[in-house]
Specification:
The complex is a heterodimer of chains A (313) and B (211). Chain A has 313 residues and is of the alpha/beta class. Chain A is built from 7 helices and 7 strands. The chains are: A alpha/beta (313), B mainly alpha (211).
């Protein structure tokens, strides 16, 4: 090994050592080894939920940590909080420390400083602490609800018990529906027996039938009156027809009379007599036909004659 | 009161509301009544004429169920007067007749004992009780039906004095002389068989007076 190689090895070792020293230095700086710290003393009636290393937050930023926990003679827990010197400005005598135990997440101390111009605390100054326990708060808030639920459950229990009014109502309702299912309607239930209900229904049915019959009768009576009116007094009614036929018969009787007179007068003339007799025969035929028509019309127009079926004896 | 009168008037008028009967029906009814009366009276000449008119009236309908009524009625009256069963005049209508009642009536006048018309069915009993039979005959409305029913029970040998007396009274009330005499003859035989001489003599006198 010559002198140059030894020199180079020496340089390498020194640089490596320096690198290690610088790294350790930076590590210590980062770990605030060289930073000055202030210690504040807090007092809490209970150390429940407080652990060493617990963060101290100011406006949501971590500015310190719980360093130690001790019990004093009075039984209170004395908590020592370590705060870097650069954050000590944010803590003064007006500061309040609160232990927050969130429903979700780990517990932490929160410091608030309402008066930023207040004096710095003395070395042996002890800050009292408050505790906000979210779980307890939730439980506190839930308690009235639970009580109400309990009351509701008690009421429901009372309502649904065997001797409760609701149960009685349901029993009565059951009896009523059973009654209704066995009986054929409210009428029967009100009357108390089946016969009365049936009688009532039959009466209603009979009354309905009677009303329909009466309605039909009145309608028929109207129709009949109208028909009778038309048949008797209308243009083609019975009375005008009878009048016309009677006039016709009267006229023909007059003609017959004149023919008979003519026959008597012309008794000597056989030829004219034969003619008159022929006319007389025709007139008699006409008269008989008219009378037959009259009888037929009267029969067809008189409303009293009704259809009558021809039956076997 | 006024309401009741109005209701009565309405009821009466409603009876007149139907259409007048057709001419064939009016003529048919008249001929039927005349035919029955003439035949049961014993006026055969008139009965024949009325029967012809009745047949003509019913023929106007061209309905076999209506046309068959005339021969069936004639045959029923023959049976009522104890002539032989059978109805040859009605037989030609049989294939065309639809109404069950007409078929039953044809069974009845033909002397068959099954499927009879409802009004005569009850008289065909296996156990004879003349009281019941007489009551059933009395319940029939038409005089001719009563006479027909009486003849039926006499043929079945299920009758008594009342059966024959009732038939005589019914026929007498209608003025059916031939029928009265037929049943008086039967009554006379009945009294003779029973040995009721006085009653038999009274009946014989009545027959003599009637002839």
């Amino acid at each position: 090994m010559n002198s140059s190689t030894g020199f180079k090895v020496g340089i390498f070792l020194i640089l490596s050592l320096l690198l290690i020293i610088i790294s350790v230095f930076f590590l210590l700086v980062k770990k605030e080894f060289f930073t000055d710290h202030s210690y504040y003393t807090l007092s809490s009636p209970s150390g429940e939920g407080i652990t060493e290393g617990m963060p101290l937050l100011f406006s949501g930023f971590e500015i310190g940590k719980v360093e130690t926990l001790e019990l004093d003679d009075a039984g209170n827990v004395i908590i020592s909080v370590k705060v870097p010197s650069r954050h000590t400005l944010r803590i003064n005598k007006s500061s309040t420390f609160t232990l927050e135990k969130p429903f979700i997440g780990s517990p932490r101390f929160v410091v608030k400083t309402p008066d930023k111009k207040a004096l710095q605390p003395e070395r042996n100054f002890v800050f009292p602490t408050d505790t906000i326990d979210d779980i307890n708060e939730v439980i506190k808030k839930l308690q009235p609800m639970v009580e109400k639920v309990d009351q509701i459950a008690t009421n429901v229990n009372a309502m649904t018990s065997e001797k409760s009014d609701l149960n009685k109502i349901i029993s009565n309702l059951e009896a009523v529906t059973k009654d209704l299912s066995q009986k054929q309607g409210v009428v029967e239930m009100l009357a108390g027996d089946k016969k009365s209900g049936n009688d009532f229904r039959e009466s209603v049915t009979a009354l309905n039938g009677t009303l329909k019959v009466a309605e039909k009768l009145v309608s028929n009576a109207n129709d009949t009156l109208k028909k009778a009116d038309d048949q008797l007094l209308g243009n083609d009614g019975t009375i005008p027809k009878v009048n016309r036929i009677i006039d016709d018969v009267e006229r023909k009787m007059k003609e017959l009379d004149s023919l008979v007179s003519s026959l008597v007068k012309s008794g000597g003339s056989i030829e004219s007599g034969t003619k008159d007799l022929d006319m007389l025969r025709k007139d008699i035929d006409l008269t008989i036909n008219s009378v037959n028509l009259l009888i037929k019309d009267v029969r067809n127009n008189l409303p009293m004659e009704q259809k009558k079926e021809i039956k076997l004896p | 009161m006024i309401k009741k009168i109005l209701f009565a008037v309405a009821v009466v008028l409603s009876g007149c509301s139907s259409q007048p009967a057709p001419a064939w029906q009016q003529d048919g009814n008249t001929s039927m009544t005349n035919f029955i009366n003439a035949y049961m009276e014993g006026n055969d000449k008139f009965a024949k004429n009325y029967y012809t008119k009745l047949v003509e009236s019913l023929k106007l309908t061209a309905d076999p169920d209506v046309m068959v009524i005339a021969p069936l009625t004639k045959c029923a009256m023959n049976i009522a007067l104890f002539e032989d069963f059978g109805c040859s005049d009605a037989e030609p209508f049989l294939p065309a007749v639809k109404k069950k009642n007409n078929i039953r009536y044809l069974n009845f006048v033909s002397g068959r004992k099954s499927d009879l018309p409802s009004r005569y069915k009850d008289l065909n009993v296996s156990v004879c009780s003349t009281e019941v039979i007489n009551l059933k005959i009395k319940k029939l409305k038409e005089p001719l039906s009563k006479i027909i029913a009486s003849s039926m029970v006499v043929r079945n040998k299920c009758y008594d004095e009342n059966t024959l007396t009732n038939a005589v009274n019914t026929a007498s009330a209608e003025g059916w002389k031939r029928t009265v005499l037929v049943y008086l003859d039967l009554l006379l035989k009945f009294y003779d068989e029973k040995g009721l001489t006085e009653k038999a003599e009274a009946v014989a006198r009545r027959i003599e007076l009637a002839q």
